[in-house]
């Protein structure tokens, strides 16, 4: 039975009318399936005039905005939910009937892809930190090596957009060779049919516990990715990334010297080097991205590419064509000889720990690290930061709703009310050669639209300080 047969004559509801929900709408419309789109918000992303056009353009769809339609939800055979919707917190779970199939757009994509005569190959990445860097570098390498790769999932365009042209019969559209998919824990909740070449859990640390409640459940969701891949790429330094997957299907990476067939670090000719077994690949000093966390990211990328059959020498040759992503340990250029670093993407404790560990070791002797942290901690335990804050950070500056909780971990923190004020204090403290790092260990939504806006405000404040 094909996916389309399974969806025919079923009561289908799409929950959420954001980018993901609207991609589901366009996809289902192609196959003349009848369905409902429901969002608790009043006409999200569209106005009344656009809604009228949507009703004309999509005659098989019924729109309900402003509140959840629990009666319709209760009668649904298939619920396609956007990852940002917490079904429990929204009170939706209690209305789902026992035979209802709850899926996300990634699962729908996989069901369709699996039914194609020539399914698109998939490489899948999850983890608390580093996902976007890893998939972006992997995508860069794949395309540089003349594979047609695309990014999807938690990054790039909605994944169902890759399938939309099939029904439209656009003759100039070529399906990609490899779909590189970044997966959040929210997306993994509703995913079970992916058949990836290889998948990795980069690392696991406290994150999204306001939704998942326990670290045990969060870890289990992350590890679901392994059962949906032929090869597992694991971080042998992080036990939470290791599951009961078959040992012969594992490629590992870590900070120590590796066994044959695995990736690691070793000192070769007095230089730290990324290794593949006994084979020296590249000296870390020559890499664009710095810090141990980035060296592990490089290894994860090489392992995934190797699983896909890509040439290891060719990948090494093209590593430095990738310069990194915005808001991820991004240098902010200034004339004051202070190293300003925007790591606004560090929205959890693990990300900030990785940044502190990777960047503090890069400072010259006698130079200090000043950290700006705080925001919405999403129920996280900040205590793992205590040792690093006291050993590696010369001055802590905190802000946001959970700033006081982070400040309590040290004796000399400075509390501020805005990011601009934090930059002002850091500017007065820092001397030439010191580093000022924005790495919040928190989400941004208590003060900003998103982490990107937070990073932009930080960089703008640094630039303004230069002109004062």
Annotated CATH topology of the largest domain:
UDP-N-acetylmuramoyl-L-alanine:D-glutamate ligase
How many structural domains can be distinguished in the coordinates? 3
Radius of gyration: 23 Å
Mean pLDDT: 91
What summary fits the major beta sheet? 6 strands, parallel
Number of strands: 20
Number of helices: 17
CATH architecture of the largest domain: 3-Layer(aba) Sandwich
Strand order of the largest sheet: 7-8-6-9-10-11
Helix content: 25-40%
CATH evolutionary superfamily of the largest domain: Mur-like, catalytic domain
Q: Which term fits the overall shape?
A: globular
- Alpha-carbon distance between the two ends: 68 Å
- Estimate the strand proportion: 15-25%
Contiguous runs where pLDDT drops below 50 for at least 5 residues: 166-171
* Class by alpha and beta content: alpha/beta
Indicate the CATH class of the largest domain.
Alpha Beta
In terms of topology, how is this protein built?
Elements: H1 3-7, E1 12-15, H2 19-30, E2 35-39, H3 48-57, E3 61-65, H4 70-75, E4 78-81, E5 101-103, H5 105-115, E6 121-126, H6 131-144, E7 149-153, H7 164-168, E8 178-182, H8 185-189, E9 196-201, H9 209-212, H10 215-223, E10 229-235, E11 250-253, E12 263-268, E13 271-276, E14 279-283, H11 292-307, H12 312-317, E15 330-332, E16 339-342, H13 349-360, E17 369-373, H14 386-392, E18 395-398, H15 403-407, E19 414-415, H16 419-429, E20 435-438, H17 451-467
Parallel strand pairs: 1-2, 1-4, 2-3, 4-5, 6-8, 6-9, 7-8, 9-10, 10-11, 16-20, 17-18, 17-20, 18-19
Antiparallel strand pairs: 12-13, 13-14, 15-16
Helix pairs in contact: 6-11, 16-17
């Amino acid at each position: 039975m094909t996916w389309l047969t399974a969806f025919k004559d079923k009561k289908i509801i799409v929950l959420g009318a954001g980018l993901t929900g609207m991609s589901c709408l366009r996809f289902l419309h192609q196959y003349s399936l009848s369905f409902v789109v429901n969002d608790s918000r009043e006409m999200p992303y569209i106005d009344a005039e656009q809604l009228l056009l949507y009703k004309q353009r999509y005659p098989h769809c019924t729109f309900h905005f402003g509140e959840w339609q629990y009666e319709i939800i209760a009668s649904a055979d298939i619920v396609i939910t956007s990852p940002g919707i917490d079904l429990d917190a929204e009170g939706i779970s209690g209305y789902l009937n026992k035979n209802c199939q709850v899926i996300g757009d990634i699962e729908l994509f996989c069901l369709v892809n699996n039914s194609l005569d020539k399914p698109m190959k998939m490489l899948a990445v999850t983890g608390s930190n580093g996902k976007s860097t890893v998939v972006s570098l992997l995508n860069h390498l794949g395309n540089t090596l003349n594979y047609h790769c695309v990014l999807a999932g938690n990054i790039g365009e909605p994944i169902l957009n890759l399938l939309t042209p099939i029904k439209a019969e656009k003759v100039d559209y070529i399906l990609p060779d490899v779909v590189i998919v970044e997966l959040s824990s929210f997306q993994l909740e509703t995913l079970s049919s992916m058949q990836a070449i290889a998948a990795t859990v980069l690392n696991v640390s406290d994150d999204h516990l306001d939704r998942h409640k326990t670290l045990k459940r969060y870890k289990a969701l992350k590890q679901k990715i392994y059962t949906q891949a032929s090869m597992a790429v694991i971080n042998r330094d992080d036990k939470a990334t290791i599951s009961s997957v078959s040992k012969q299907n594992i490629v590992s990476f870590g900070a120590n010297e590796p066994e044959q067939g695995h990736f690691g670090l070793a000192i070769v000719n007095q230089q730290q080097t990324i290794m593949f077994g006994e084979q020296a690949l590249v000296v870390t000093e020559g890499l664009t991205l710095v810090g141990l966390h980035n060296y592990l990211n490089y290894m994860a990328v090489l392992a995934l590419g190797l699983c896909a059959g890509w040439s290891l020498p060719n990948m090494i040759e093209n590593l430095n064509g990738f310069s990194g992503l915005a808001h991820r340990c991004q240098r902010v250029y200034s004339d004051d000889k202070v190293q300003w670093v925007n790591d606004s993407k560090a929205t959890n404790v693990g990300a900030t720990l990785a940044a502190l560990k990777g960047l503090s070791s890069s400072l010259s002797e006698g130079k200090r690290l000043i950290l700006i942290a705080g925001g919405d901690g999403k129920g996280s335990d900040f205590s793992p930061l205590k040792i690093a804050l006291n050993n590696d950070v010369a001055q802590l500056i905190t802000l946001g709703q959970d700033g006081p909780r982070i400040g309590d971990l040290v004796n000399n923190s400075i509390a501020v009310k805005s990011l601009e004020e934090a930059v002002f204090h850091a500017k007065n403290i820092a001397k030439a050669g010191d580093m000022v790092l924005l790495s919040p260990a928190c989400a941004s939504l208590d003060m900003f639209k998103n982490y990107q806006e937070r990073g932009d405000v930080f960089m703008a404040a640094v630039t303004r300080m230069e002109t004062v």
